[in-house]
Every structure is written in structure tokens, then in C-alpha cells.
Amino acid sequence: MTAEFVIDERITDWLAAEAAGTLPETVFDATFNRVRRTRQRRRSWDWNGAGVARGRAILAILAAASVVAVAIIGPIGLAGLAPPVASPLASSSPATPFPATAVPSPVATLTPQHSTATVVSPPPVAAPRTFSSARLGYSITLSAAWRSQLNPGAWDGVIDGSTHNADAGTDLYVDGADGYLIQIGVMHLKAGTNLARWAADESPRATPVGYMKDPGFHMLTLPIGKALYTHATCPELSMTSVFLIRGTTGVLISWSNLLGDDAAGRAAFLKALGTYR
Amino acid sequence: VVQRELVVAAQHGDARAFEALARQAGDRLYAIARLMLRDAELAQDAVQEALVRAWRELPSLRDPERFDGWLRRLIVNACNDQGRSRRRYGAEVRSIAVEPIEQDEVANLADRDQIERGFSRLKPEHRAVVVLHFYAGMGAGEIADCLGIPVGTVKSRLHYATAALRAALDADARPTRLATEGQIA
Q: What is the mean pLDDT of chain A?
């Protein structure tokens, strides 16, 4: 037994003695509470079994789509080069009880310029949606993926109404595409309340305790006036809170992402605030 | 239930399966974190962060069989994050028995004290390889895989760290002035 071996054994013994201990139950409780509030990060292409299966399915669909495209575009292309009446598709189409001129088939109406590969038109872009709240007195335009919390099944989380003093009410919106949330809360203020002071007082309640590490406030100029916003983030949550005052009410608009930080999503939110009226 | 089945279930969003996995691994992770951070509270925070991160990133784990190694990597990273954010390495205050102790125990305490001091002086990256090698029983290749660093780097860190610890233990041969009424590590 060498001296080095003996020393290594003593180091191992010491580590084992120092490591003895049980993780307190409170840590498990806190961890599982966070787990229940945390969404798993799903990637469009991951290499676990489900991902591979999904990937293969996508490849299969793409392959099938290309076969269909070749089957359709190919003959159409050929048809476009030949006179319409001589098209083999047109001549081989089944007999119809209706006169050919009454309900023209798509093939018969195709002209050479339609028979190129550009026949697939781009999908229509969904229009942004404007949400108005007579109760809280605002309107805001968000991208098409956003839904109001009133839509059944759109929101399966828990809304903690105690996080700030929105005594006039709170509305919640969910982005069905990216999982972002927007919460708009309105609260009554004493006349003459200063924006900076109110924002500083309200922000600890508006932002989950412990996540905010003195991020500071930024000035934001909206069409309806000046606002202050602050951004707090931690690994499983990112939240931007915007404070503005309209008359005797304070408006807190918070955007949050349950999957951590996302600069692009946050920037889109700040841009959408330009539509807040 | 076989661990692999739990991992696969958790990957598909089964929070209960994940809780079972977390309970199985909790004490092991806590031990590694305490050894690396030398602070029970920081270690608890690190375990919590590692487990939440594990839940969030679990769908991206390619091979469920490698769950344990993957989790060890997460706890080491969480410890590094904790250490960087708090800068409290070596700040733990520990008490040693106040009762009169036998001569053998004096020697034993002196021995432990020397290792403790040597270990506390190691850089976090050196502590990580020492803990994974001597405590978790991992080879250089496994550690390299776990930490995402070359095997050569693991070996050099291990060489440096064990040399430092051996040097600290060599001081054991010299007379010690261990106070029997207690001391701060």
C-alpha cells in the first residue's frame, strides 16, 4: 500500500464524512412548487425518441407533399406546353353528367402562366387583433396569436391576484404561439401621484419576490404619454413591467415569459405598447 | 419503477415521475453541492436550481440512460453559478465538539482539519473534479463527459488538486496546535 494510496483513501473518507446529510424536505417542497409552475422547454427538433419520431413524421409528410407536388405540377407543366384540348388529363377525365362548359375543371381553365412552379400562393398572414376593455378603459393591438384569458382553455395557469394592487381589475392575455403572458391591471391612485414614486412603490409587488435584482427603471414614451418600465429575469421567468398614469388611475402592464428571457418577445411587447390607448 | 421509465415519463411532462427522480437523486446532489460550496444554504439553493433546470431541459436529454451523469453536470454548473453570484466560498462557519476528546480523535480531527483547509483553498473547478472523482467515484473520462471539458484537462486538474491536498496532509506530520474547545474552519 503506497503512501499516495493512503492519502487518497483519507481524502475519500473525509469527503464521505463531509457529504453525510439529508436534503431538507422544505427544499423538495420549494423545488416541486417551482416545477409545477415551470414549463418544459420543447424544441422543434430534439433527439430523444419522440423528437426523432416527430422528425421522421415531418420528413414523411414533406416527402409525400413533394410527391403530390410533382404529380400535380408536373402534368400541369406539360399541359401548359400543349394546347389545352390536347391535354391528356383533360381527355382522360371521367365523364360528368354536366356539360364541360358549365363547370369547367381546374385543369381546363389553367393557362401556361399558371402552370409554373409559382402556383402555390403564400399562406395568408393573420391580422393583428385589437382588444378593448370598457371595464378598464383601454385598447391594445396584439399579434394574431394572442388570446384573451376569457377564451375557455386558453389559460391553464394560476393567476395570483394578490401580486399587485389592481383594485379596478386585471385582464390577462395569453400568446398561444410562444406562451407569453400580458397582464393589464388598473388601480386607483391618490390625485397628484408621482409616476416615479408610484412605480417604485408598486414594483416590488408587481414583480415576483426574489427575481428582481435592482434592474432599475427605463423611460418609455408612448402615444398616450410617458411610462416607466423595468425588467426582471431569472432562469425560469422573465418579466417586464410597465407603469403609466392616466388621470387618477395607475396602469400596470406586465409581460412575462415562463421559459426564461427572450429579448425578441420582449421587444415585440414594447412595440405593441405603441398601440395602447 | 425503473429509472429509465421515470425519465421518459418526465420527459413527456409527467411531474410526478420527475418528483420521484428528484427524491432519488436529492441527497446525492446535496452532498456534491455541499462539498463544492462548503455552505449548506448555498448548496440547497444549488440543488433547487439544478432540479428546476433539469425539469425544464429534460425533453432535450437524448439518452435517458445518461440521466444521472446529466444531473451531476447540472449540479456542478449550479454550484458554479451560486459561487459566482455569492462569492462565499469557504465562508462556512463550523463548530467542532467541545467535549474533551481522546488523543486518537485529536489526530483524526487534525487530519480532517488539514484536508479541510487544503480543500477550501482549491479553485471551484478543482473542487469539482475532486468531488466527482473521490466522492462520486467517476473516472477521468466520465468527468470530462460530465463537465464538458477535455480528458486532459480533467487529469491536470485532478493532479493539481490532489497534489495540493497531499501537501496539506503532509503538514499532518508536523506538530499541530489544535484547540480542543472548538474552532472555525
A: 65
Cβ A50–B64 below 8 Å, yes or no? no
Q: For the stretch A138-154, what's the b/e string if a residue is b when 16 or more beta carbons lie within 10 angstroms of its beta carbon? A: bebbbeeebbebeeeee
Distance CA A158, CA A160 (A): 6
Return d(Cα A86, Cα A105) in angstroms, integer: 14
Contact A253, A184 (CB under 8 A): yes
What are the residues of chain A with a beta carbon less than 8 Å away from any beta carbon of chain B?
4, 7-8, 10-12, 14-24, 27-28, 30-32, 34-36, 38-43, 46-51, 235-236, 259
| Identity at B91, one-letter amino acid code | A
- pLDDT tens for each residue of A211-247: 445 557 788 888 888 888 887 776 656 778 888 998 8
pLDDT of A74 over the 70 cut: no
What would the mean pLDDT of B127-149 be, rounded to a whole number? 89
Chain B, nearest residue to A42 by Cα: B59
CB A229 within 8 A of CB A217: yes
**SS3 assignment, position A70:** helix
* pLDDT tens digits for range A33-59: 888 888 887 653 333 333 333 434 333
Radius of gyration of chain A (CA): 30
Query: In whole angstroms, what is the distance from residue A276 CA to residue A243 CA?
Result: 13
The C-alpha of B49 sits at a distance from chain A's nearest C-alpha, in angstroms, of 8
Cβ distance A216 to A230 under 8 Å? yes
Provide DSSP, B66-95.
GHHHHHHHHHHHHHHHHHHHH--TT-----
Question: Are the beta carbons of A7 and B166 separated by less than 8 Å?
Answer: yes
Q: Where are the beta strands (DSSP E) in chain B?
A: none
Whether the model pTM is above 0.90? no
Buried b (16+ CB within 10 A) or exposed e, B24-57: ebbebbbbbbbbbbbbeebbbbbbbbbbbbbbbe
Q: pLDDT tens across A90-118, in order? A: 333 333 333 333 333 333 333 333 333 33
- For the record, the C-alpha cell of A41 comes out as 422547454
Hey, are the CB atoms on B44 and A40 less than 8 Å from each other? no
Residue B29: list chain A partners with CB under 8 A.
Answer: 23
DSSP state of A125: P
